[in-house]
Fold these 3 entries.
Entry 1:
Amino acid sequence: MAKQITKKDGFRDLLRTVREKSDTLRLSPSEEKYLIHIIKKGIREGIYEKDDNRYYYLDIVLNTLLIVIEEIGLKKASVIANVLYRPAICKIISVNEIARNFDEEVVDIVNGLLKVNDLGATQATLESENFIKLLLSFAEDMRVILIMIANRTHQMRIAHSYTDTERLKLCVEVSYIYIPLAHKLGLYKIKSEMEDLYLKYTDRETYAFISRKLSESKESRDKYIQGFIAPIKERLKDSGLTYDIKGRTKSIYSINNKLKKQKIEFESVYDLFAIRIILESETDKEKAECWQVYSVVTDLYQPNPKRLKDWLSIPKSNGYESLHTTVMGPQSRWVEVQIRTRRMDEIAERGLAAHWKYKGVRNQSNIDDWLVNLRETLENKEVASTEKLENFKLDIYDDEIYVFTPKGDLYKLPKGATVLDFAFAIHSKLGLTCVSAKINGKNVSIRHRLNSGDQIEIMTSPNQTAKQDWLNFVTTSKAKNKIRQKLKEDANKQVDLAKEALQRKFKNRKIEQDEGVLMRLIKKMGFKTVTDFYIKIAQESLDINTVIDQYLELEKRESEPHDKQGTISAEEYVINSPNLIPESATDELILDKNLRGVDYSLAKCCNPIYGDEIFGFVSSQGIKIHRINCPNAHDMISRFPYRVIPARWSGKSSSSYTITLRVVGTDDIGIVTNITSIISKEQGTNLRSISIDSNDGLFQGTLSVTLQNTETMNSLIKKLKSVKGAKQINRIN
């Protein structure tokens, strides 16, 4: 039961726990004294307080400590790190100070816990990079994750006191991260408790129904168990074995899963409990004595041969060892019987942590292999976060099969694994060149699903390479990860070759390539990414000459006049105002602040600004001022020369003008920040709007800025071109 620490008793419970466990944990007097000093200092600094009545965080430290010691079985370094964790977060103590007082193990665990805190682990950002980093930080030292599991177990136990929002957030995080991890690490008791609490908080009605039914049937269930084990005890009495026998009711969560999966009523569930026989055996006699008990049980009750699970000969990857069988008991009810030794039972209850106690007795669990695969998956940047999460959970929950190489080497794979999965499990190169296999001497395809006991010989070819459809039938995250990686590498090579071919063709046809026009063409052609466009060229399903013809057509269309000049014909045009052009400026229109009596405006098609070379064009709306290089200039001057008036700027610029710049470049972290930073530092220049479209490693966008003249504009463009990744900076208008 979780303890609540109040101001009344202060930190005495925690101190008492540390002192009581000092001998067990082998704390030196100086270490114990230092821990107590830090706890007292934390109390004085108020780092454990949450409200006026409770030392909330001291409560968490104490109860997590008890779970870490008593339910998981972690030792000295983990306990010390757990006590120092919150003081380190609150800067009561530095990591350097911890390093001066404790060994490297403690420092590593504290650092891992600090990383988790920095990443905001409690926010359950399951599909973000934070989730990925969180798992990686856990995997640096498994004791970090075991402490976090203990922490979340305590929080689930007291979650009834949380707000609905806090409780839901905790349940989601525990469901996605900590229950699967507890399962993989063999913490079945804690896993079952968290699952039951998850159901209790998320579906109270179902939880209450099953709980009530179990309570109502408890008396008859206990009576049945006693009747079942009585003959077994009688047979074992004269065997000389030392043992315990106990019954275990299935968890509420697993019963609910069975009800939903099989769509049956509660009364129809027969296997609500399992019988566990725990032997006190010497290490070299464990297997033999377990099979001896199995013989006694199956002599008394008819076994189901399909339900025999031998995890004695080949333990699970998390170290779980046990012998399971299902037998027909009285009243024709199926009963599961689990047979194991005391050592095996402790590992089953405490999982991976218990291996440290028995180090040297047997080979260490191959959980490290799983962690290596996990790291490889999570570190692969080409795999989306949601896929990483799916692969992570898949690797955790899959049942295992056991297969062999021709030399007899054993490999564990998830149920449903194929020949190709097996090839990748041995070596990535073998997987990428695999073409078929021989299983027990019989030829099979790479898609063939494996069964326990298969002996597999992989056939390879140097001409083989990864195919996209392989992802449809492989099951292991390692295989999927390596296939995606290879496909990405091959695609990049194809893209590079296609780019080179396109650039060469542009050069041969003496065409200057504009990245912006090409990007718009690719989008116009319906390609979602630039990579898809180049792959089509590489596959020769898209002709390069056709692409260039379409490019030229688009470029020509974009350079054609955009502004329709006037609404009446030149022949019908009459200058209505005799004062439209002053007598003093009949040869040249001079624009300055002193200009009066002339109806003129700046043309929107080219947005001239002070300093541009300009001309005037007489229209029905007065005189329009255009840039010499306006897209419509050639058309106006050639068709209506009598409407054209020479013009120039005079004096100093007294107005602000708005221009639009097009930016094309390589997508790079911080490029937008760098661009806006340069603009903000330019005197008399203001950013009005920015639009950036990033696509497959390239970006293009437009910047709308206000400035006073072309001198300022040219200076700005020059500085923007110096930004890392910027390829082109062009004025649009």
Note: The chain has five domains: 12-202, 215-357, 486-559, 583-649, 657-731.
Entry 2:
Amino acid sequence: MTMKAEVQTPAAEASFRLLGSAGDPGRRVAIDPEALDAILFDLDGVVTETAKTHALSWKAAFDEYLRERAARVGGIYEPFDLAQDYERYVDGKPRYDGVASFLQSRDIYLPPGGDGDPPDKETIGGLGNRKNQLFLEAIRRGGVEIYRSSIDFIRQAKSHRLRIAVVSSSRNCSEVLKAAGIGDLFDAQVDGVVAKEWMLAGKPAPDTFLEAARRLGVKPSRAAVVEDAISGVQAGKAGDFGLVVGVSRSGQPELLRESGADVAVSDLSELSLETSEQGMSTIALPAFENLDELWTRIGKRRVAVFLDYDGTLTPIVERPDLAVLSEDMRATLTALAARCPVLVISGRERGDVERLVGLKGLIYAGCHGFDIAGPEGAGLPHEKVVGYAPIIAQAARDLDRQLASIRGVIVEDKTYALAVHFRMVSPEDVGRVEPIVDAVAAQHPALRKTGGKKVFELRPNMDWDKGKAVLWLLDALGLDTAEVVPIYIGDDVTDRDAFDALRGRGLSLLVAEEPQATSADYRLYDVAEVRRFLNELTAVLGGKEA
């Protein structure tokens, strides 16, 4: 049921829909990507799990100073309150502004000082530098964790060709991005260093967000802001951005809505990008906690099983040639194929996936369904795709030449598609890969760029994907009837087309360690759970009446 979104004031242009009610674990926010050109993300607490590290560093610095000051002037020592003081006075603000704001709440006024003040100097600059020293020590000691759901959402946004920026008050933004290995995700970066150089007012002023929009070449009304801090939400609102999304990981969304957020979520897994024609994404249910429901949905009907290969039948590995099917999984597929049709539909070249699986009784589709073969070995490539092979080959040669200086890149010519794998590229070189791929794609307008897990792909620029391939196969094999339940299992962005195609028609299972926005019905944790599920399915099918 679609409900009217809870808004402070309507978003200027960006449309979104809210499914479910507050507190509902299946509550979803669908954002129309056609209403946006860009999304601007705060860093700490939105993309990286550094907000806690910042908060603890602030507490350590302030408590150290407050304790020493109370002993020196004979006052009462009242420690920094993580629950109240951090969010109210410090979170999201430039470092020295945060110092001044908190101290003012305690009626403490210090000389401003500056960047060069030592950490033990009793100035705003000195105290801020002490906090920064503690923060850097913490991330160098313990590293930086990311919110996987946020990274997934950013990649989803990039797949819709939206521009992405990170907007942070921190002067340590570059170091945090490098430590997390995600610097390549952003098309623009506006941080505390940029703000100082360009004399931009910090949050809650909108200046840094407006500068990010300018660098991306987009109008604020065509951009969304994603923030977890009250000051950041206020900045997005003050800048008249098309949509302001508040991220309330502390469970107080009303504070963000009161500050100007158009909608508040607890995690970015609650967000999805969908045009008005698409169905709503939800959180897929854990398959093994809902097996009874799943078997009931199948009932006494026949089953056809579609399987992705990499990340589904085998774990993701650094090199494509190392993704070898285990003998246990091969035995599982053999047993399942004796009970129902089993089809492997992969982004790999068809001959490659046939060789890796090594079973003759299966049906194989390669290059995301552009190249298909049945048990008799009759090739059934998409009728229009054959002419693309020379274009793919030329693009592969161009990429091989232009990417030769970047160690770890693998360019894979798959006849009807090509892949650029960058899983083994060093973090400092990752950002060099995509611009080269974009340039080659621009030289070959017959191809379009797509993406996956640590891979960019160039495919024929035509209306064909895994979802359409699944529907074509069901029809071609006489399986497109109400008596057959198609089941699709996959882990990648490219599998979403199949999830969408089977919605309301069959069952789909996402392979993912963490919950995320998806149109799949159920979720399997990893390859081991895939094998376990297929074994359970084989047993269920074996027990059905003839």
Note: The first strand starts at residue 2 and ends at 3.
Entry 3:
Amino acid sequence: MHYPLFKQFAVLFVVAFFSQALAAQHSVAREWNEALLQSMREDLARPHVQARNIFHFSVAMYDAWAAYDNEASPYLLGKNVNGFTCPCNNFPKPADVEAARKEAMSYAAYRFLMARFANSPQSTLTVSRFRDVMKKLGYDPRNYSSDYTTGSPAALGVYIAQCVLQMGGQDGAHEGNNYQDTTYRPNNPPLAVVAAGPDEGVDPNHWQALQLKTPIDLDGYPVLECNCLGRSYSTLIDSVDENGRRRFTGTQSFQGSHWGKVKPFGLKRQNRKIHRRDGHEYILYHDPGKDFFPRLDTLGGGGTSKDYMWNYALVANWSALLNPDDTTRWDVSPRSMGNVQRYPRNLSELSEFYDLHTGRNPGIGHTVNPHSGQAYTSKMTPRGDYIRAAVQYWAEGPNEETPPGHWLALLNYVNDQPQLVKKFNGKDRLMNDLEWDVKSCFTLGAALHDAAIAAWGIKGMYDSARPITALRYMATRGQSTNPELPSYHPAGIPLMPGRIELVQKGDPLAGPKNVNIGKIKFYAWKGPFAVTDAKTQTAGVGWVLGENWFPYQPKTFISPPFAGFVSGHAVFSHSAAEALSLLTGDVYFPGGMGEFTVKADSQFLRIEKGPNTDVSLQWATYRDAADQASLSRIWAGANTPFDDIPGRLIGDEVGIGAFQLAKTYFYKDRDRDGFFSYEDCDDNNPTVYPGSVEKCDGKDNDCNGKVDDVMPPCKG
């Protein structure tokens, strides 16, 4: 985002002060980690690109650390990775290994970040931040030498950064072309979101770009002074010209449709499929296929139309839960939230998993905190406040670092907890902060990178509709419940009393001369344009015409610029949760609970006033947090259940695979079972996974590396 000049100086002062404070508290790796996160917050909001940035950054840091280690093996330095070779000759061993590591890591991070974020919208601020960190650490930012054979740690760091950047130039991401896929062509014309629609001729089985405003040149416009308020304008940038000027055309372009071709870290060839659509090749890892992807028969309503209708109708139904005046109260503590026992395995099981009326998943909660031995304390909270806070918290992260950046920030939160024991997999020797920060960032970065490749490969191939297209499409056709009722259409939306109904005579929505009689109406959130002052107003919930329905998103964003199937949030979150569970050797957050508190009337919601009360988002396990992140996208109206569940299942596999490969770089000649892995769990029981109920049966039912660790302790 663009800042007025005086605000840039203010931000620079804060960054400088923050860097000084961190120097006394955190490792060099963490310092650069925080600099990366802040730069991601100011960069374009492209989750798949930022996941790649995190991984490449972690490679640069890890290789600079591992270059001086006797046991760990670098990932890229001296290796051939996916066809790219980074040669490495011998170099003198330093007298002070720790000092050499910190220097090499800093130069590797600095040179990588300077190059990768050179074209960021806030490049001036970003560059100043990176230089400031270097100066505070006592290093010369003007050192460009890469001749590491002299024994210079700085030169080694510069060389590693060069290798990582060169690898990125040929990994299939199209970085040199601003990450654009020149082969993708949308199947649908854009949807003008402020008009009723979509128009005739739209295929509800394909993604549809959104059209918001008339063309506008962003360069020279501080965001605070332009119609495209907020950082999300980046999702609508159509092109970057030869002079680097960004053009906002008001119409989205599909981001990352080619991402399945990006070179992965731990994704396996046996889990890869190659598909063709519209004459182009798509590479998919963990393809969920026909088990989860419904299509709407626009003429006869056959095939999987009923599944399609139910999924999107649930999204419309849950929109009514975004009610600031909701009197329903939930216990939002781990006592009642989380600990989902089993996920659906196909479309037919989704209706048993999601509660159509309450907005819940069938999590049974956790009776006892295994770290304290005490019961979790109930925390009753208004449902409308809780859902709205959770939606905003998980959207792009509380500070807008994008979903993968959010999990990097959560890693930092975990690492700061005094209860965390920094042992790899919870079993190895105790690590110092530097080693832990490097290895944990590398493991998580690998999981997030592979998650983006898996998710966006599927998004590109299936090219599925977002709820705003599907719901408006069905609503404009009519209702599909009863042929004897008015406005029947086989491709219409099913009626749900109190939620989805027909406009009747005398209805406030009937309009001039009863023009809207027989149309579909939703009882739902009234939309971002119902608010003119987000500091003092709420949109509220009420009856709206289905053809004008909006998700719970800001008016400058509305819906993501890529397909819904599968949910990126679900894949990112579950991949990260599995990686963190295995990394720490514990499925629980340190101390048995993670927490984020949203203060009442703190403007945290951004798009409207609220919440009305303090809201605590609490999670016992990493998977509980991932499940909440996944569910939040349905509450927001951005995804459906059929987007969500396969994303969770894919994320689980991706995170486990990334961890299993990452540990092979950290330790040489270790037996596979030298550390806890999910292969150590009860493989004969398909319902066993982290977070499930531990039993007194001599098995590790909840896959936390401990047998029969129940409260009270097992006897006999």
Note: The first strand starts at residue 80 and ends at 81.
